[in-house]
Design a protein that fits this description.
single chain; 193 residues; alpha/beta; two-stranded antiparallel sheet; 6 helices; 5 strands
């Protein structure tokens, strides 16, 4: 094999042929796109697209969730935006938390969009528990990687295969209480594990 890259793992060297890797990735992406198309056009999402937070999947709790949201929606004016900084007690609580955790109080507190707040909070929690390294089954969401890095938490992949692939296995180290992260393949590959 004409290898472009060498990676040294615990007891073996893995040779990587870039052209072969790219060809295999192209095939895998074509396969994933076909699966996305099948899910989107042949299977629908089970609720005619009305589920608030689903991605082309059936959820047995969707009716209860929608009913709850509709009931709560009658009690507030949806035209009026709730600003994060109008909740002084929440901001003070976040300041205090960071002063205790990071030993400094942030100059300001900003609420990030999407899952940023949740993933950053999860990373802060891991840091507060003394976690310095986490293991993961790729891919790792970039926002989570960034948050973990900001707390000095190192990441290490434990496999090169996906959970739905043949001969999938993970190589967890023999350490006490390892943290293993994975992204549910239903979100990036359209299939559950």
């Amino acid at each position: 094999m004409n290898s472009d890259h060498h990676f040294l793992t615990s007891e073996r060297t893995i040779e990587i042929d870039t052209a072969t890797v790219l060809a295999n990735q192209r095939i895998a992406i074509e396969c994933l796109n076909t699966k996305f198309e099948t899910l989107a056009f042949d299977h629908n999402d089970g609720d005619d697209g009305n589920f608030l937070s689903g991605w082309q999947c059936e959820n047995p709790f969707v009716s209860d969730l929608l009913q709850s949201v509709r009931e709560r929606a009658t009690t507030f004016d949806h035209r009026r935006y709730t600003y994060f900084d109008s909740h002084k007690d929440l901001i003070q609580s976040i300041h205090s938390y960071h002063k205790r955790l990071d030993t400094f109080s942030p100059q300001s507190v900003i609420c990030g969009c999407g899952t940023t707040s949740l993933l950053s909070t999860f990373s802060a929690y891991l840091h507060s528990m003394g976690v310095t390294k986490v293991y993961y089954i790729p891919p790792l969401y970039i926002t989570l990687q960034t948050a973990l890095d900001s707390y000095g938490i190192h990441t290490e992949a434990v496999t090169i295969k996906q959970p739905y692939e043949e001969n999938f296995s993970i190589d967890l180290p023999d350490v006490m209480n390892p943290v293993l992260l994975l992204t549910d393949p239903v979100w990036y590959a359209g299939m559950a594990i």
